[in-house]
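Q: Hi! First time asking for a complex rather than a single chain. Here are the components, and I think there are three in total. Is that enough to go on?
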Amino acid sequence: MSAGNILVWIVWFTAAAGCIGSALAVVALRNALFSALALIGNLVSLAVFYLLLSAEFVAAAQVLIYAGAVMVMFLFVIAYVGWDLDIAWTGGPSWQTLGGIVAAAALLAELVVVIVLGAANDLKHSNKIAVDFGDPASIGRVFLSNHLLAFEVISIVLLVAAIGGVILGAQRRRERSGGIR
Amino acid sequence: MIRTPAIDWLTLAPSLALLAATIASLMAAVLVPERRRRNVSWFFCLAGYAGAFAAAAILFDRSPHSRGVIANALFRDRYGALAAMIVAGVGLLTTLVYYGERSTVDRVGERFALLASAGGGMILFAQSANLLTLFLGLEWLSISLYVLCALERERPEAIEAGFKYLIVGGFSSAILVFGAAFVYGATGTLNLAQIAGKAPSGDLFLITGLAMILVGFAFKASAAPFHTWTPDVYQGAATPVSGFMAGATKAVALLVALRVLSVSFSAQEHLWTSAAAALAVTSLVVGNLAALAQRDLKRMLAYSSISHAGFLLFAITAASSLGTRALLYYLIPYGAASVGVFALAALHERELGEPATLDNLAGFGWRRPLSGIALWIFMLSFAGFPLTGGFVGKVYLFAAAYRSGWTWLLIVGAVATLVSLGYYLAVVRAIYMRPEPGEKAAAKEEPPLLDRMLSTAVFAAVIVTVGSFFAVQPLIDLAKHAASQLPL
Amino acid sequence: MLTTALICLPLLGALSVFLLPGPRMWVGSLALFFSLAELALWVSSLIRFDFGSARIQFEQQHSWISDLGISYHVGLFGFSLWLVGLTVVVMTAAIAYGLWSGRERANAYYALMLLLLAAIVGVFTAQDLILFYVAYEAMMIPLYVLIGVWGGAGRLRATFKFVAYTMAGSLLMFATIVIYGLSHGFDLATAQQSGSVWLFLGFAAAFAVKAPLFPLHGWLADAYRESPPEVAALLSGVISKVAVFGFLRIALTQFPGPTHDLRSLMLALSAVGLVYGSLLAFRAPDIRGVVAYSSLAQMSLIGLGVFAQNELSLSGSVLQMVNHGLVSAALFLLAGVIELRTSTGALSRLGGMARGRPILASLIISIGVISLAVPGSNAFAGEFLILAGVFQQGWGWAIPGLVAMVLAAMYMLRLVSALLHREVGEAVTKKAPDVLLPELCVIGALLGCMLALSVWPAAISKHSFACLSQPPVTSAGISSQSKAQVGLACVPRAGSTTATTTGTAK
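A: Yes, that's all I need. Here is the structure of the assembled complex.
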């Protein structure tokens, strides 16, 4: 195992820990603002993975668009709506919660086993990767050829999501000023 | 120079019609003056569904052979076209019912836009030929439905419903995507047709992917034990939307599930048929027993839809051409009856201003004789009684299960039907045999137009429900042509 | 075409009765008109029917669920013609009675009655298993509402029991039909016979619940007590016959092997039901209870005849089905007449009604006497044929029949004396009038049919199974089979009518 390989492993583990930790933080933190910040951490650690997979363009896009632009909008919205929305945790550990935890643990165990059994061999050697893998031109080509429809449909999905956000956000604002109306 | 793939516009036409309707309704929300807004955006939505239905019918007619189009992103085939017709039909009726929904006064344009958009997503989902478009179609329809559910902010349950649907729906989509990633890892392709045969049939990644995809579909079809969101969402959402979800979302989820399983996982048939049988039995048990305990009509119908998912899973368990025909056939009266029964629930709610329960339905059948008969017919159809299409569907499903060697499922199905009579007949008992409460008899008078839209929808639903018992042959031909294009 | 007309005319009637507005009397008269038209249609088919032929008649077939080989296939045999006739007559009487007693919500009521008529005729004429099931279940739809809406105080409980019992049976039968139909064919004329005991039991359970046979009679008393009188008349008079018809048309003909193997069981159940029902009838505290349990006993007797499975017992069963249909319908209507006057059916509170009410007394006595099978009556002919047939099967089986005949005399005389004689009951007021003219017309018509059959019982017993009257072809191979297979090979199997490959009884 060369020194470069060890470095890759260190980076990989750091990113993995960051990814899981920040994802937990997104869910666990009470304050929406902190959750959003944790989400940025999550997105950035994902970008590190993309880098490790030689997908530099995707990594850059991830950082620029998601961790940058989208999250800034996110933060704006949160700041606009207010981040002090403490929703009280009403339920105790019911049988459903316990069942959920057990099921999730079982699923995790299963996935780990499957990945270890199925992919252990693939991890031992590095794959040959085409030179133009992951560069903007090849990505663009895929978007406009093989996945043209998907590329277009994504815009529709985003449009619908935007409509939803606007409607729900506007309703919430009106409710807040509902007393005056 | 990039060679973009040829676009087959006819395949896209049904979802494009609905997309156009979405945009037109949205525009109407901005450009049309307030007092006309509801009519205009409603009309666009209706026209969108009608156009989608017509386009799907033409597509059905002109696609005698199944083939992939637009770089194999979509199937152009009769199976997808028939699914699109079912969705468009259910959507058309839902639009008629949704017109009179009281809360639509607020944000009316957007509501119809979202209703149309949900249908567009379903049709794309039903036609999808690779895992990417499949997922995007699913997200398109799901996001539209999340928002539609959360819109009814006047009622606190609606917020809960929308939130719950969002979380559970997002979770199930995530599982489906995770499964798709495993499948991609095993086979290196997203194309449904190419997945089969790319990896050895016992490949661990492939089987894990299959299991997770199956779970994702089970969530969307609300098959137990992945059903827990259903009662709350059906209860909380606007009643016509619940009908739409019961009639169309479930239909599409099961149809696409059958397509993915049969096209991509034919080598693992022994695995997914057993899984489908297990899901079917669980759904029948959970749905039927829980429905018996309900007093709220919409909750009861939600559990009944879970038990129907169980019956519909017989078709997937059968994994045969007969099963496919059975599934397609069953969905036609089932979709109609779902919209119809939720329409009547909506009618009753609007009259009373409170959720329909078995208690306040007392006397409904005598107060409104025709609506009472319609409700009766829908209940009988759900229970699979003769003189309704539900019976033919059930004969078909049972026959398919038996032909594929699942004889014990027939016994389970018969017992489940017996139990289901307990709550279906409870509705009949409520509307005819309970004494009518005095003060509620003088129900509020409604604007006539509002009534007319809803009555038209109910009438059409009755025609389809009863008609699919008598005029069987045309529907069989439709189902036969569509089913012959699946490799089963 | 005629058969389809027999099914569609009441359907048309139901639709028009439901949709046409009008006062109660008018709606009821329209319904009565439709049932009389149906009666006329039946008479015309009776005239045109060729009793000499063992073939299915007035046959009609259209493809329906072509994918599974299910078709709309209807037609009539001799015995189904008589049962259709019974249905039409009793239904006409029931509608007339309903018209006279002035049912609330007339549109719905008469529409449901006519729908029920169509469904029952459908059962008797269906030649396809799925079509048979459709009609069989379609009966439940109007019945459920008829009992649940127009019934007595305990009607909800009664409907629950009724539905739970009968649907458990029929859904089992549904699964059985699907299995049987896919493996042997749905069309009764061409379906192959099956040797599977399980499939046989699937059918038998449904019919045994509906008939009812001991021990599946738990729903009986409640349903018969809580129904409106005319619906009770239909239930015990006609709908129980549907079950026996099912045994005759499906269980026996399609499952010769299992019928033979399980004959002792079925005969034993019938025998137990016969004695048990008679005893219960003897102890029942009210009129309807007596009639209901006597109905159980009578159905068991008919079951005995059916499972004895020979020439005499089968023709006797058909005759007795018609007899009992008429008798029990008349008795339930009489019960309704009495309850209308006294608002109770409890025997302890009734009595002495003969005084000043000669018509009522004569009706009760004459129908009661017919029902206990006095020699010369049609019921005597039926029971005699059945018991003679059963005697051939094994003399031991005839003993419960004889015991039951004695018990029948006892419970019927108890009923007659409790109603008519003894001191005047507390519920019987002086003012309670005698039978009025409309009531007399309805019940008198039923009585007239009984008397006609008393004069000429052979009208039915000799004209039910055409093949029985043809010279039997005995072949060594077949006569070595059980002698009791008689008749069944040619009862309904249109495909093999020409070859009456049956042995004789003796």
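A: Confidence is low (pLDDT under 50) at residues 444-449 of chain B. Let me know if you'd like any chain examined more closely.
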